[in-house]
Fold:
Amino acid sequence: MLRKFIASSIILLPLATAPEQLPGKIIVIGSAMYDQVIECAKDEITEDILSGIKIDIRRVRCCAGGGCINCARVFHHLGLPIIPFFKVGNDQLGTILLNQISEDDIDTSFAQRDPKMATGTSFIIPTPSGNRTLFVYRGANETLSGAELNLENLPEKPSGIYIAPTNIRLLIDLVNYARKHKISVMHNPSRTELTSHADTLEMQLPCITILQVNRQEAELFFKHLEPKENFSLTAFFTAVHQRGTPLILLTDGSHGAYLAKQNSILYHPCPSAEVKCTVGAGDALGATFFGALLYGVTEEDALRASIMQSIAQVTGTPQLSLAALLERVQNEPSVIHKKITGQIFDKGISGRT
Structure:
């Protein structure tokens, strides 16, 4: 039995009664980074933290990160079967990163190593708002290619493909593979894809089932899609829908999140929580949403579950299994607001345009 979204060329999502009953594993593709998280006293963090002042650091916490690794961890916590595809350098950091991922019980058998490029590295800097500034060296991630993945020789057809920010050549290869085999695709594009490669990204929209962006990214992409129009949420949703993507998951920070379908918009306000770190929140939200849909959960319940998982990420609490999330969804009242397309949405449900 198949559950079908609004008309598009690749939008069939399989229903299942248990994670192990998914017809195939979820391919997770994106960057693998050696994250170096800088921690210092809050009273020493100012807006001009990079203007030349010297700040003592309490510690530097190092861990495996990047879009692919973050999402792979989320899918693993959900209890869903995955195949992570990523690339590191043939260097010491690459070995450390692979060992850390293996300790998380995540399959690294499909990982690639680049003999020339170094492992991707990021430096995560605190800011007064609680958000983090990231300095990113993508390194070996930029050379990952569709040919290395050898998707045509997988032992079984994947249930879906989750594409975290990646290089544009690989995105094209993945979309072509998904189109050929009628596989659902969720994509969380990078800032570079939304600006420098916006033309190419636009061409892939008919075969992307779910596009995930935040508000700032939506504004950047909208300048390319409709350069003569003023930005609004509904204008952006309409522009993307017209180009063939049936679902848009848009986050708006403390203002909440939107799920835009062709005939309605769901809005989930942001729950109040003590935010410790926002890094990885988007990955937690997107992976949970996609995994829940592939599992057969409704769009509304998938949105609620993904918000719960994202809040767990930003508050530093343990990630939840899909079963635990769905139990909470069933037992807690929904705060989702629904809007039918065509109704006035100038200030949105959240008061944002």
